[in-house]
Specification:
Pathway: Amino-acid biosynthesis; L-lysine biosynthesis via DAP pathway; DL-2,6-diaminopimelate from LL-2,6-diaminopimelate: step 1/1. It is a single chain. By secondary structure, this protein is mainly beta. It has two domains: about 1-120 and about 280-290, Diaminopimelate Epimerase, Chain A, domain 1, CATH 3.10.310; about 125-275, Diaminopimelate Epimerase, Chain A, domain 1. The protein has helices at about 30-35, 75-90, 190-195, 235-245, and strands at about 1-10, 15-20, 45-50, 60-65, 70, 95-100, 105-110, 115-120, 140, 155-160, 165-170, 175-180, 205-215, 220-225, 230, 255-260, 265, 275-280, 280-290. It has a 19-stranded mixed β-sheet that branches. α3 links the parallel β12 and β13. It is globular and about 55 Å long. The termini are close together. The model is unreliable at about 145-150 (pLDDT under 50).
């Protein structure tokens, strides 16, 4: 079948976006992999599918498929591209839309300058809800310079290639493991990332963040994404890193996050307040591809 698509990216995190709203569309995992293949297909970190919602009170349903064909819960950079896509294609003229995702509802707002603000919801730190298995582990306080303090995060030990890595575990609607490193550019992300991603203590696998603190309002970040490998940017990964850093007392809102693909701005007042992400969304090209059944 012939399939129309739009290629987009958010800070270098790239997507194939499909309209399943005007015409229902069902793809197999094999077809998703074919579309995402950078040599024989279009090429993308994830495939985004726009659909009609299945719950009341929202505008759209937003589904995300990794390049390995598996469906995942959330993608922050994709969410920004999502709202640009539905506006550019005339599916809505609203600047702010409510979107159904796998684990709830998010709000996306297009700014006058073209940037998109995403209400990412409240970070979740309870290990069982990430999910992360703490059975038999002893965590340690993850406070910042002020040391142990009320609300400070707990760091958990993970055995990785003969070394112990201490990580914060966070859910932003999808699971994340975040560790602070001295030099993110020199850190062995390609070696450690896949080991942590598929570690037995993360029953649904995990996105792995490596952050270098630049100042209390700035960090550098690399993320090894579950099912996609290292990407140029990861929106939920940026949110998880900032949330963990603020909770540990290492960062203060707002935080500028430098990724290899661009810059994101994350704001979080802590506690049960929603975390907000702002950043770019760009259309690369539109096209049509012949897809095998």
């Amino acid at each position: 079948m012939k399939l129309k698509f739009t290629k987009m990216h958010g800070a270098g995190n790239d997507f194939v976006v499909l309209d399943g709203y005007t015409r229902p569309l069902k793809l197999s995992a094999e077809q998703v992999r074919a579309l995402a293949n950078r040599h024989f297909g279009i090429g993308a970190d994830q495939l985004l599918l726009v659909e009609k919602p299945t719950v009341d009170g929202v505008d759209f349903r937003y589904r995300i498929f990794n390049c390995d064909g598996g469906e995942v819960e959330h993608c922050g950079n994709g969410a920004r591209c999502f709202v640009k896509f539905v506006r550019d294609t005339g599916l809505t003229d609203q600047r702010s839309v409510r979107v159904q995702v796998q684990n709830g509802v998010i709000t996306l707002t297009m700014q006058e300058n073209g940037e998109v603000i995403v209400d990412m919801g409240t970070p979740v730190f309870e290990p069982a809800r990430v999910p992360f298995d703490t059975n038999g582990l002893d965590g340690r306080p993850g406070g910042g310079l002020e040391g142990r303090r009320e609300g400070a995060d707990t760091l958990w030990p993970i055995d990785v290639n003969g070394a112990t890595r201490w990580v914060s575990v966070v859910s932003m609607g999808n699971p994340h493991a975040v560790q602070v490193v001295d030099d993110v550019d020199a850190f062995p992300v390609a070696a450690d990332g896949p080991v942590i991603e598929s570690h037995a203590r993360f029953p649904q696998r995990v996105n792995v963040g490596f952050m270098q603190i630049v100042s209390r309002h700035e960090l550098k970040l690399r993320v090894y994404e579950r099912g996609a490998g290292e990407t140029l940017a990861c929106g939920t990964g940026a949110c998880a890193a900032v949330a963990a850093g603020i909770r540990r007392g290492l960062l203060e809102t707002p935080v500028t996050v430098h990724t290899h693909g661009g810059v994101l701005t994350i704001s979080w007042a802590g506690g049960n307040t929603p975390l907000l992400m702002a950043g770019p969304a760009a259309t690369v090209f539109d096209g049509e591809i012949e897809l095998a059944d």
